[in-house]
Amino acid sequence: MASGDDEVEEAELSPGGRIFHAPRFNCYILSIIGLNTAVDPALLKFGLQQTLIKHPRFSSKLSINGRKMKWTPTIVKLQDHIIIPGLDPNMDSPDQFVEDYISHLTTIPTMDLSKPLWEIHILNIKTSNAQSICVLRIHHSIGDATSLISLLLASTRKTSDSESLPTIPVLKRAGSNASIGFFLAILMMLRTIWNTLVDLILFSATILFLKDSKTPLKGSSGVDLKPKRLVYRIINFDDIKVVKTKMNITINDVMLGVIQAGLSRYLNHECGDNDQNGGKEKQKKMNLQKKTRLRATLLVNLRPTPGIQSLEKLMSKELKQKKWGWGNKIGYIVLPFKIALQNEPLDYVRQAKATVDRKKASLEALCSFRIAALVLNIFGVKVASAMAHRFISNTTMALSNVVGPIEEISFYGHPIQFLATSVYGHPHALTIHYQSYFNKMTIVVTVDPDVIPNPHKLCDHLEESLNIIKNAVLDEGFDAA
C-alpha cells in the first residue's frame, strides 16, 4: 500500500494515460524549478514525505496485464527517486551543463516500471538565473500539466506566509447567453456548431492527408525518438501586461502574437539570409512564406474547475472516485499561424486574437477528446496512438501554457526564482511552452537539435518580437478600437 493511505485501491489509467504508454507516444513532462538558495536534500526529502508521495499517482506503480493497465499502490523508496549527481561548484559553464544534463534525460527511453514513474534531480550549482536547479521528470500518464501543476503548487507555500497556498489568477469568463438576448444566443450557438463542423473536417483531414509545409521548423519521421534540447528565456511579465492592457486583450492573445511574430522572423532569417541574388529574390522567398501552412497542436484543459486545490482535496474520495477526477483530461485544437513579416507589428497580435476568438467559438477540443476515447475503447491503444501520432506528425509544433502563482512561493522551504515546464516524446521537432510566475514569464523551447540546431536564436527572435510589439503599443498611443 502507499504510505499514509490504507484505503487507496488500484485505479485504471485514463484513455490519455494509456496512449502515453504507446511505443511511439512515450511522453514525459520535464519541470525545471530554479531556486534562490542551494537545495537542502534532507529538507526536500521531508517535504516530499509529507506531501507528494501521499498522492496515489506518486505512490503507485504501473501494472500491465494484457490490455489492462492499472495503478497499483506500492511502498515509495525516496532514495530511488531523488538523484543528486556529484558536481563541481566551480565548473566553467554551469548554464551549459544544466542544458546538457536535461538534454541527456531525454535520451533515457523509459522509466523503471517497478516503481512510481517520477524522479527529481537536484543540481546544486549556481547558474545565471538561480542558485540551484531541481528537475522533475514525470511520465505523462500520471497526469496532464494542469493537474500536475495544481498538485505541485499545492505542495508549495507563499514565501511571505509559510502557511498560505499560492494564489492563481482567476480566468474571467464571458457573460452568459441570457444577458445578450435570445436572438444573439441562437446566432452564437449556430456559429459554434458551424465552427465545430469545420474544425472536425480539418481535424479528420489532418489525420488522413493534410500536412504542414516543409520548413526549417518541421521534423521528419522518427523525430519522437530523437534526443531533445530544452532552453528557456525569462522575460518581464510587465511587458506583456502593457500590451494586454493597451489592446484590451488577454495574456494568451499577446503571447500567441509574440510567437507568431517570432516564428516569422526566425523563418525569414533561415530562408532569406542566404539570398545572393538581390532584393527581388528575397522578396520572392517572403511571398512564398505567406503561403506556408504552419500549425500548432494546442493542448486545452477540459476540467471545469481550474486553480490550486489543497492536497487533501486532490486526494479526497470524491475526486478519486470521479471518473475523470485525475489523470489526463485534455483536448487538442489545431492553431494555424500566419507566417509573414508584417509592416505593422501589432498585426501579429490582432491576427492571433482573431484566430483564438474563432477557436473559442468551437467545441474542437472537447470533440477531439471524445473521439480519442471512443477510438481507444473500440479499437484499442495501438490504433488510438497511431491516429494521434499521425495527426500530430502532420502539424509543425506543439504549444502549451500554464498559469502560475502571482506571488513568490517556496518549494519545501526553498524560495523559487522561476518555473519552466515542457514535454518530450511526441512527434514534433519544436515545442513551445510558456509559464507565468510572479512578475516573470518563462518561454520554454524544446527542439530536435538536428532540425533546429540553435534554439537560443529562436528565443532571441521571440524576445525581440515582444519588445517590438510593446514599443509599437507605447509609441502609437494605441487605441483599442
Question: If you had to describe this structure to a student in words, what would you say it looks like?
Answer:
This protein has 481 residues and is α+β, with helices and mostly antiparallel strands. The protein is built from 14 helices and 16 strands. The strands form three sheets. Strands 5-6-7-2-14-13-8 form a seven-stranded mixed beta sheet, with helices on both faces. Strand 6 and strand 7 form a beta hairpin. The termini are far apart. Residues 1-7, 173-178 and 274-281 have low confidence and may be disordered.
Salient structural properties:
481 residues, alpha+beta, seven-stranded mixed beta sheet, six-stranded mixed beta sheet, 14 helices, globular
Task: Give the strand content.
Answer: 15-25%
Task: Give the low-pLDDT segments.
Answer: 1-7, 173-178, 274-281
Biggest sheet details: 7 strands, mixed
Summarize the amount of helix as a percent range.
Answer: 25-40%
Given helix and strand content, the structural type is alpha+beta
Principal-axes geometry comes out as globular
How many strand elements? 16
**Over the alpha carbons, how many angstroms does the gyration radius reach?**
23 Å
Order of helices and strands: EHEHEEEHEEHEHEHHHEHHEHHHEEEEEH
The overall average pLDDT, rounded, is 85
Question: What is the number of helices?
Answer: 14
Q: Strands across the major sheet, in which order?
A: 5-6-7-2-14-13-8
Termini gap: 60 Å
